[in-house]
Design brief:
two-stranded antiparallel ribbon, alpha/beta, 10% strand, 2 domains, Arc Repressor Mutant, subunit A, Rossmann fold, 345 residues
C-alpha cells in the first residue's frame, strides 16, 4: 500500500517580528493596542495564530510586570537576541513611581541599538530611550500631556502635536490610540495593506491616520475638523506662558500665515491671534476660579506682560474684573455652572 503523505507543519517565517519590553507601571492601553493590531493582522479570520506576525514579551527576570492599572503581564521569555526581531518596542508608563527599568534591561536596550535593530518608544518609553542616550540628534514624539515633563527633565522641546515620529531606526509614539496607527503602518510595510486594513476594520476604526496627524486636542482648545487647525491650537495651548508668534506658528504647521488665517476663519470664525488670546484668557479664568495663585502669577502663566494688561483684557472678555471672580469663588467655594461650561474638565 502506498504510504499516506504526512502533512507538513506551517514553517513560514513571520514577515513581522516584534519584541516587547515593558516598563514598571507600563500603560496597558498602549501595549494592548500594539499587540492586537499585530494579532489581527497575523492570521485569517479571528484565529489569532502568529503566522504573518510574531510577538514576544520579554523580561530580564521573567516575573510578572504590573501595569499602571494593576493588571499584570507575564513575560514569555528572557531578553532574546535582538537580531531575531524587526523591532523592539519599549512600552513606558507612569513617570513618578520610581525607576521604570532595571540595569539589565537598560543594558539590553543599548545592545538593541548597537545591533542596529529599530527601537520604538511608546508612551513614556521615549523618556527611557532618552535617558539611555539613544535619542540624541533624533526627533522625539511624546503626548501633549507629558510635554512639560519632557522639557523639565531634558531641557529640550519634543514634538507633541502629532501621533508618532519615525527618525531612522528610532520611532517614538505619543501612545493611546495613536499606537494603533503606528502598528498598522508597520504591518502595511512588512505584511501588506490588506492585513493592516483588516486590523483596523476589526477594531472598528475607519481609517489609518498618518504619523503627522494631530493628537486629539485637549479640552482647553477649541475643536476643529481640519488637522492643521487642530495642530495649531494644540501648539498654542502648549505655549500659554510664552506665546508663539503667528508667523512662527504657520511655519511650524507648514502653511503660509495668510493660509493659516483663512483656515482659522473657516473653521473657528476668527483669526489665529484672536483664538490664541481667547484661549489664554479662558485659561486665566480657570486658574482664578480653581487655584490660589496671585493675579500677577496667573497673568504670567497666561502669557500677559503684567497684571494690569491681563485685567483689562479679562474685563473686556468677561465683563468683570478678575479680582471680582476671585472674591466670588472665595465666597462660594465652588465652581459655577458657567465655569463648568467654559472649562470641560
Amino acid at each position: 500500500m502506498p504510504s499516506r503523505a504526512i502533512p507538513k507543519p506551517d514553517i513560514a517565517v513571520p514577515r513581522l517580528r516584534v519584541g516587547f519590553v515593558l516598563a514598571r507601571h507600563f500603560t496597558l492601553t498602549a501595549f494592548a493596542n500594539f499587540i492586537d493590531t499585530l494579532r489581527l493582522a497575523a492570521d485569517e479570520g479571528d484565529r489569532s495564530r502568529p503566522i504573518h506576525c510574531k510577538w514576544v514579551v520579554m523580561s530580564a527576570t521573567k516575573h510578572p510586570i504590573a501595569s499602571s492599572s494593576g493588571v499584570e503581564i507575564a513575560p514569555e521569555a528572557g531578553l532574546l537576541d535582538p537580531k531575531q526581531f524587526h523591532y523592539i518596542v519599549v512600552v513606558g508608563g507612569l513617570l513618578h513611581r520610581g525607576e521604570q527599568i532595571d540595569e539589565a534591561t537598560a543594558a539590553y536596550i543599548r545592545q538593541v541599538a548597537a545591533a542596529g535593530i529599530p527601537l520604538i518608544g511608546v508612551c513614556t518609553g521615549s523618556f527611557i530611550l532618552k535617558r539611555l542616550g539613544l535619542l540624541e540628534g533624533r526627533k522625539t514624539c511624546v503626548s501633549w500631556y507629558h510635554r512639560s515633563d519632557f522639557i523639565e527633565e531634558f531641557v529640550i522641546a519634543p514634538i507633541a502635536d502629532q501621533l508618532y515620529v519615525i527618525d531612522g531606526d528610532r520611532i517614538t509614539c505619543s501612545g493611546g490610540a495613536g499606537v494603533v496607527d503606528l502598528a498598522a503602518e508597520l504591518v502595511e510595510k512588512h505584511v501588506g495593506a490588506q492585513a493592516a486594513r483588516k486590523s483596523l476594520n476589526v477594531m472598528l476604526l475607519d481609517e489609518q491616520r498618518a504619523a503627522h496627524a494631530a493628537q486629539p486636542t485637549p479640552h482647553v482648545a477649541p475643536t476643529a475638523a481640519d488637522a492643521r487647525v487642530r495642530r495649531a491650537v494644540l501648539a498654542m495651548e502648549q505655549a500659554m506662558a510664552d506665546p508663539i508668534a503667528i508667523t512662527a506658528l504657520a511655519e511650524r504647521i507648514g502653511v503660509s500665515e495668510r493660509q493659516l488665517d483663512r483656515l482659522f476663519r473657516e473653521e473657528l470664525g476668527t483669526s489665529p491671534a484672536e483664538t490664541y488670546r481667547t484661549m489664554r484668557l479662558d485659561y486665566g479664568h480657570w486658574l482664578i476660579s480653581n487655584t490660589r495663585r496671585s493675579i500677577g502669577e496667573i497673568a504670567a502663566m497666561a502669557g500677559f506682560a503684567d497684571g494690569a494688561h491681563f485685567a483689562r483684557a479679562y474685563r473686556k472678555r468677561f465683563g468683570v474684573n478678575p479680582r471680582g471672580i476671585r472674591q466670588f469663588s472665595d465666597a462660594t467655594s465652588a465652581e459655577t455652572p458657567a465655569d463648568r461650561r467654559l472649562f470641560k474638565i
